[in-house]
Amino acid sequence: MEPLRIGVKPDPELGLVDFDAVTLYQEGLRYHESGRCDRAVAFYDRLLKEFSTSRYFSAAAFNAGRCLEELDRVEEAVSHYQIITRGLEKSKDWVDAAFRESVCLSGLGKHREATGLLDRLVDREELTASDRIDALVLKGEALKKMGEVLKAESALRRALRIYRRRGKDEYLDPVPAARAEFRLSELTEERFQAAPLRLPEKQMQADLEAKAVLLLSAQAGYLRTIRYGDPEWATAAGYRIGGLYLHLHRAMEQAPVPDDLSEEEARIYKDVLRKRTAVLLRKALKVFQMTVELAERTFVQNRYTQAARQQMEFVENQVLSLYEDLPEARPPEEEEQKEAPPEETTK
To answer: Where is pLDDT greater, at 64 or 347?
Structure first.
């Protein structure tokens, strides 16, 4: 039997005279499901305060945490999840509470605390393959934000290895795998963006080749992201591929001019460079166009699809107009069809 609190007059906060843990939990759940999280928390918290031995104790702590997240009281949500993660190791709510707490901690910028909790989560023997993949992806993201790139890559690659190995025998949601591949590609893209273009000319050629290798590596990762077939991550990856070409174009446009050129020679050098880099703009435009088309077909609207539309208009209406006088800068519709569109890789 659950303990019962018997009163003489209605409780000023809850409005109840007599109540037990079951009543408090059910009332909290009723308010929770109706969107009244402010009221729900009051009932959950009273249960936590007065009925610490109740079988509803863990569920009340978890539900209160979810309500507090909805109310944007994230630090309070963390303290409620910690009731479970720090004191109720055998609770059936432990895994879910650990996931939610780690997300909240990362949102608060407490990435090291989040990774520590995720390590505890990954080490639990009863964890399913899907949950272990999710935990490793969250850990990789937190490590990336901490600047621990090698550890981040290790966690993300481990998630993908589990997905590929276990996915042969059971169905696994491809979304976390697409997310892991996307995050790995971001790390490669960061190295690509940081790669310099320097003089003298021999060094410039070597730098350009190294930067191109990084571009192709990042692009390959984003294409693998698309192949998982999730529209959200596919459109994000398509946008980032277009961005790779735009970045290389800007980097080449801003590359230093050899010091031994006269003013006229420098002008000619820049004109030739503009002709050669125009193809990068056409490639970027084509990728942005296909990303927008994919978003329209799959009814996906996110920050990446919006950015893709903006970049498409920018390249089409402003940047390409600068190249109209250059014979090499043909309009996108005249581009040879040998380029593989990103969306075709989803097959």
So the answer is: 64
Q: At what angle do helices 37-50 and 21-33 cross, to 10 degrees?
A: 160
Domain that residue 331 falls in: 181-347
CB 207 within 8 A of CB 198: yes
26 in any annotated domain: no
Closest Cα to residue 14, out of 27, 4, 33?
27
Q: Is residue 78 part of a domain?
A: no
CB 79 within 8 A of CB 91: no
User: How many domains is the chain partitioned into structurally?
Assistant: 1
Percent of the chain at pLDDT above 90? 76
Query: Residue range 80-84: average pLDDT?
Result: 98
Mean pLDDT, residues 259-277 taken together: 86
279, pLDDT greater than 90: no
Residue 331, phi-psi category: left (phi > 0), alpha (psi -120 to 50), beta (remainder): beta
- pTM of structure: 0.86
In a domain, 300, yes or no: yes
Q: For 165-210, what is each residue's pLDDT tens digit? A: 999 999 999 999 999 999 999 999 999 999 999 999 899 999 999 9
Q: Is the pLDDT of residue 333 over 80?
A: no
Q: Is residue 268 part of a domain?
A: yes
